[in-house]
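Exercise: predict the fold of this chain.
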Amino acid sequence: MSTSNAHLPLYGKTALVINSTCAAGAAAAEALALAGARVMLNYPDRRDAAERLAERIRNRGGQAMAFRADITLPGELRSLCDVLLAYWGQPDLVVGAGSHFVALSVALGPTDPPVLALSYDAVAAFLAAAGGASQT
């Protein structure tokens, strides 16, 4: 996002959306990007869908990057985290199913401040509380 978007509630924040090609993941990613977050789009398959989503976010002035990883495989999860940390640093929030958070917390290691973990369906309420856009 440009500096003209510095007023957005998640400007300067980084979000990792797990399985961003599912409907709930895509909606969460777009909402977070509209609120100013840089969004790492994880996808286990359906590269075309992930790339289209990243393009939609970038066309709206957001920042998005797609990365294929099956997070049930430790090596792929580690690669996802390594790329995210190298490009944008520690994520501020992670969006996914509850089962994703334990593996991600292990792969990311200790973080300061702690990473906020949200389920897909909690994103709209989080953004409403943060004063952000909750619609795509």
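Check your answer against the key: The chain has a mean pLDDT of 86.
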